[in-house]
Inverse folding.
């Protein structure tokens, strides 16, 4: 953890270093991933079977390529009641929030007599990557699958590695609840390649979303353009702005809730009170010792954590904007006033009773958010990521007469005479 | 040009070949572009100056890095009245169409007492690539710049190569009309790198859009994630569906208006009348001989053109969907009925008096559209490409009490105890 104050002589440089710290490994995965994609395109199922044997230590022909819908339903039915209720609450609230994102079509006739508009439709098929092992989160499955289903996607195929053939039953339960149509026991870059290009029994999809390790992220980047993808995702981060009126234990838990995800995550506290900063730092240390995820969270906090003391809370605004954080939690007296001045953040948590974790599960907004300063230009996952817009135009002869001469003039000026001719012929104009 | 009929014995295979024909060169530009980006990141302005000297044969220190706003205004003022009126009509209609795309914010309190919503803001800065040489189209500049300005982007930087120091005055006039803030005399992959990472006097932007050659397209792909980009664009295409009631000359001109763009473009006609197909083929040949762009259009038509005879117009619907064309023109008796069944197209032109060219210039919808079957998942350029959405949440203690227990249950089930603790502490729950 680093401790900074805006009054430090070297603050500007040290803060810039914090902003520019990418925490993203691109350690030669590009070539590996390109080779994996090429092998799946060339050898199809055989490549998937070999790579699964190598990385997940099971034979797809023996364990089965797919997990049946009946198995997903059985996992859901076997949930203990408390978890089942929690998962259902989450799904219902996520669905309600995303239903409001459905875009409206437009269709109107303007004063020139031109009918023009736009029509939205879902993609035919979407693929969702669900990590195996430690990061096999049913909440992530809901956050990816439900927007696709709300969009109206007809075929939703999930891929997930099952190391040694094992899979988290909670993930299967969530797949049932979200209405996933196919569950394939394939992971890694090879699974992304199979979704993008198709491989034997796995038909290709149009959009691929979902979190994964560096290989999965790079594979999504490499197939972008062949299919749509949600975003280039990196390590997670939280910025907490808190004054001395907070309970330091609450603030410490908020910072650690990010740190426990992965050793690459970043937790940053801004406060206007140095004594409060000390108390939070001490509380973080104390809580870490009792945390089951200490091994991960302590590395993340030590390597990437930061506490920054500012003179006034308003001084934090431009600094927060430069960080363009995935999560921004405002535990201050006037969170809305602060938010009004922030331009860049993935998701904002307003007030002392809105811990970031509430947004990870049940609140409703999507928890798939832009990381690594990408909130400057990117948005969280939404229904729009699973839809596409077709614009349309209809002119009659009178409308074409209104717009035709300008079109002919511009087409000729651009040196495109066939463009001009296609209009001029219809209007019997010189061109 | 190939001629197919759905009754051909080998129709399925030949149509699939047409669908899968990518027409995209990836002839080793990947490594070239990576090297150019690395050199711009390392050497900044010096790299730009060297590469400009090499490719565009002028010295930026002598010709000037930027073109002044005054020069753009002078170019606009010097336009002949007909062109000036045409450009102004185009800009006004493009602006009007895109103003309707501005997204609405949401902000509401639900039955659990949770305030939740989403806020849209423009990115701080956008960069537009404008090609030099033959494809220096003022219309493309308007189609890229106006949505950015409608979104509210504060800084709009344009890059364009000026071979031998020369630039098309129409492009400068369009830059003035669209309100471009900076015009840089830099092109190629190096210009994209400068916009993404910054290079000396060129400050970095958040989003890069605009057409370019294979190097520019690959550079955008490589910087995707560092900045947002509009899309991975490929060669242009048109599908025309026309019955025998059309004037074959009109249909021929429609096909050629695509073919004249570039030797890689694809023009495809579907018709239910073989005699009409013959007449169009003859008209294309005749028109080609008189076309100033014959050299390009003939190569494109010969290499990539197709005429496909179907039994009934309805038979064309699934074929059209598989092509997922950038442009779809429906010169048939019931264009709306056909369009109702089409799922995939970038932009649709309904009826005999709606030639595609009208959409290239003045109609209003964007002419930057998904190519190469990407209309399956991608949309035309819009105001949304220059904006991003921040979701937000606000809970009070009562609302947290509603959602807290489910969050604690799910966080514990996912093995994330600090997540659970951040909620449980606030509610004095066991966790």
């Amino acid at each position: 953890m680093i401790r900074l104050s805006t009054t430090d002589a070297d603050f500007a440089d040290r803060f810039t270093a914090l902003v520019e710290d990418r925490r993203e490994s691109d350690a030669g995965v590009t070539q590996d991933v390109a080779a994996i994609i090429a092998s799946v395109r060339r050898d199809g199922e055989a490549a998937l079977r070999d790579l699964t044997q190598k990385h997940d230590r099971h034979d797809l022909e023996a364990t089965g390529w797919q997990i049946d819908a009946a198995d997903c339903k059985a996992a859901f039915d076997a949930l203990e009641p408390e978890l089942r209720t929690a998962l259902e609450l989450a799904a219902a609230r996520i669905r309600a929030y995303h239903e409001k994102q459905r875009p409206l079509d437009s269709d109107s006739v303007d004063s020139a007599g031109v009918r023009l508009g736009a029509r939205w439709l879902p993609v035919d098929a979407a693929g969702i990557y669900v990590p195996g092992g430690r990061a096999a989160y049913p909440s992530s499955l809901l956050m990816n699958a439900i927007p696709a289903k709300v969009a109206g996607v007809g075929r939703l195929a999930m891929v997930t590695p099952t190391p040694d053939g094992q899979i988290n039953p909670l993930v299967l339960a969530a797949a049932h609840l979200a209405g996933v149509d196919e569950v394939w026991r394939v992971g890694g870059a090879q699974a992304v390649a199979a979704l993008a290009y198709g491989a034997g029994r796995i038909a290709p999809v149009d959009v691929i979303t979902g979190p994964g390790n560096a290989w999965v992220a790079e594979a999504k980047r490499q197939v972008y353009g062949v299919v749509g993808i949600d975003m280039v995702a990196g390590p997670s981060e939280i910025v907490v702005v808190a004054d001395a009126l907070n309970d330091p234990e609450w603030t410490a838990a908020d910072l650690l809730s990010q740190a426990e995800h992965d050793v690459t995550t970043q937790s940053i506290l801004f406060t206007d009170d140095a004594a409060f900063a000390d108390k939070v730092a001490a509380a973080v240390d104390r809580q870490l010792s009792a945390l089951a995820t200490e091994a991960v969270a302590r590395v993340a906090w030590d390597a990437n954590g930061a506490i920054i003391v500012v003179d006034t809370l308003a001084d934090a605004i431009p600094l927060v904007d430069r960080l363009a954080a995935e999560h921004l939690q405002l535990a201050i007296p006037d969170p809305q006033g602060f938010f009004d001045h922030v331009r860049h953040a993935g998701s904002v948590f307003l007030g002392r009773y809105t811990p970031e974790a509430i947004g990870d599960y049940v609140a409703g907004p999507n928890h798939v958010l832009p990381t690594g300063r990408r909130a400057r230009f990117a948005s969280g996952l939404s229904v729009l990521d699973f839809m596409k817009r077709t614009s349309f135009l209809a002119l009659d002869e009178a409308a074409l007469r209104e717009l035709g001469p300008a079109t002919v003039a511009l087409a000729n000026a651009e040196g495109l005479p066939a463009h001009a001719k296609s209009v001029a012929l219809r209007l019997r104009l010189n061109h």
Q: What stands out?
A: Chain B is about 45% helix and 15% strand.
